[in-house]
Specification:
The complex is a heterodimer. Chain A has no helices and 11 strands. By secondary structure, chain A is an all-beta fold. In chain A, the strands form 2 sheets. In chain A, strands 2, 4, 5, 6, 9, 10 and 11 form a 7-stranded mixed beta sheet that branches. In chain A, strands 1-3-8-7 form a 4-stranded antiparallel beta sheet, with no helix packed on it. Chain B is mainly beta. Chain B has strands spanning 5-7, 10-14, 19-24, 29-37, 43-50, 55-58, 61-66, 71-76, 85-93, 102-103, 107-112. The radius of gyration of chain B is 13 Å and the shape is globular. The termini of chain B are far apart. The chains are: A mainly beta, B mainly beta.
């Protein structure tokens, strides 16, 4: 079946420009996550959506970053006034939330291929 | 900032050998997961171990978890050239309420034919 898709796969932009990165999750997955991965590092959490609402946006680095998921499916990560330090691979993941033992959640996140953003 | 730290940062072995990667973390967790990444792109989920589990197997993979030492290990037996990739451990904080993954910096594994 179809996995998580992300577009574009690569984006080159100039410093100061605005960019939008799109994530199309697996159909039926209610949870959607954005991560950012710099070269040689592990992914860092940016924001989590449960349905249409952002349940946790604590990982967004500053107010130039914003994400939406208006219909609870496709999500768009928006970056204003891009800076060279924003260059990274932006990863999206989706999952089905399943309650586990001890009040915790146990589920697998399925990642898309990522968008490689380069800010010149 | 990242919670997990993988050890070693890079590992180079011959086909057929076993590869062991370690992960340490700092806070109480709900579960710990291992992911694989080829060429810096999408991550593939390998295995999830819950905080009340000590060992788990999946094919050639064996994962252990020691919550008293806040550490985990991933063992790949009889490695193949196709296992060449970066491997990341990711923890789910105990108080998170959902699977917000906190990744380490990863171990880059090279398996030579």
């Amino acid at each position: 079946g179809a996995g998580v898709s992300q577009t574009p796969s690569n984006k080159v932009t100039e410093k100061g420009k605005y960019v939008e990165l799109r994530c199309d999750p697996i159909s039926g997955h209610t949870a959607l996550y954005w991560y950012r991965q710099s070269l040689g590092q592990g992914p860092e959490f940016l924001i989590y959506f449960q349905g249409t609402g952002a349940a946790d946006d604590s990982g967004l680095p500053n107010d130039r970053f914003f994400a939406v998921r208006p219909e609870g499916s496709v999500s768009t990560l928006k970056i204003q006034r891009t800076e060279r330090g924003d260059s990274a691979v932006y990863l999206c993941a989706s999952s089905l939330i399943q309650a586990g033992g001890s009040g915790g959640y146990q589920e697998t996140q399925y990642f898309g291929p990522g968008t490689r953003l380069l800010v010149l | 900032s990242q919670q997990g730290e993988e050890d070693p940062q890079a590992l180079s072995i011959q086909e057929g050998e076993n590869a062991t990667m370690n992960c340490s973390y700092k806070t109480s967790i709900n579960n710990l997961q291992w992911y694989r990444q080829n060429s810096g792109r999408g991550l593939v989920h390998l295995i999830l171990i819950r905080s009340n589990e000590r060992e788990k197997h999946s094919g050639r993979l064996r994962v252990t978890l020691d919550t008293s030492k806040k550490s985990s290990s991933l063992l790949i037996t009889a490695s193949r050239a196709a296992d060449t990739a970066s491997y990341f451990c990711a923890t789910v904080p105990f108080s998170g309420g959902y699977n917000k993954l906190i990744f380490g910096a990863g171990t880059r594994l090279a398996v030579h034919p």
